[in-house]
């Protein structure tokens, strides 16, 4: 996700983030309340998935990687030890394109999701932001 930057009349730059991104930033800085909010959000998402018949349980180790890297694609790539260039070769896309996907500027196609899952050993369902 790309943050929005707003410049005040006085020239100061303000950064607008989603609550999820803000909590992830605070959690990485050691804020336990932010970690609790992120955990609660994951639990709510999981319960909603179960209520709708979707049961894509994501293991704790992957959730931690996503929290560290802000992107499930980056987390999967790092898990496998791939560079961006290495994953680009698998996907047949440019490094700039992959960077845009990892930063939330572009969405994955279903085919790219399957290719990344196959190349990294994670479940395709985990690669949804």
Automatic annotation (TrEMBL):
Record-linked Gene3D superfamilies: lambda repressor-like DNA-binding domains
Annotated Pfam families: HTH_3
InterPro entries named among the record's database cross-references: Cro/C1-type_HTH, Lambda_DNA-bd_dom_sf
Ranges for domain HTH cro/C1-type: 73-127
Source organism: Methylobacterium jeotgali
SUPFAM superfamilies in alphabetical order: lambda repressor-like DNA-binding domains
Superkingdom of origin organism: Bacteria
Protein name: HTH cro/C1-type domain-containing protein
